[in-house]
Design a protein that fits this description.
This protein is α+β, with helices and mostly antiparallel strands. The protein contains four helices and five strands; from the N terminus they run ααββααβββ. The strands form two sheets. A three-stranded antiparallel β-sheet has the order 2-4-3. Strands 1-5 form a two-stranded antiparallel ribbon. It is globular, with a radius of gyration of 14 Å.
Length: 88
């Protein structure tokens, strides 16, 4: 039952889908992205979700933020490098 509940939560969490599509989870504290940058990209694809709700959904996935020099970051993730197709 616990696994089914987690699967339902994952399937209904738009933040999870965006995270998996746009970022790589590295679990390396040297990899980080600002909460504001993450939120900006997320709301471009999913308008209408507040930063607080997004943060709560991130915490449900055990993704926590913490400040560094006055800016909040999610640690252990980095953007996926997109390679453009050759136009020739």
């Amino acid at each position: 039952m616990k696994e089914e509940t987690q699967s339902y939560i994952d399937d209904n969490n738009p933040v999870r889908g965006y995270l998996m599509k746009t970022y790589t989870i590295t679990n390396n504290d040297e990899d980080r992205v600002s909460v504001d940058s993450f939120y900006e990209g997320f709301t471009y694809e999913h308008p209408g979700i507040s930063k607080r709700k997004m943060g709560n959904l991130m915490m449900m996935m055990k993704m926590r933020s913490r400040p560094l020099h006055g800016v909040r970051y999610y640690y252990g993730i980095k953007e996926v490098a997109f390679v453009e197709a050759d136009q020739n």
